Amino acid sequence: MKLPHIPSPCRDCPFRKDTLQGWLGEDRAAEILEADSFVCHKKTDMQCAGHMLEKGEQNAFVRLAARLRIELNLTGAEQVFSSKNACIEHHKN
């Protein structure tokens, strides 16, 4: 069984450290990071790898996969922010 998710952060993922600074806005970044899960902004039928990597076990999709014993095989952890606060700070405009 496979779960619908992106395996690594896409080029324009808001959780990537190399995205355009301030484009998302502080409030929207905080709102997304408070969510239990987040779909990819490009492939809206798939879960966002960046959100899963950023939140880890706090992401509902990651927890579901663990309960079902389904390996997500996420890659690109080095591309995302090391903390929620760093991500929000990056997106301040």
From TrEMBL:
Source organism of this protein record: Duganella phyllosphaerae
Name of protein: Uncharacterized protein
Organism lineage string: Bacteria, Pseudomonadati, Pseudomonadota, Betaproteobacteria, Burkholderiales
InterPro entries associated with the record: DUF6283
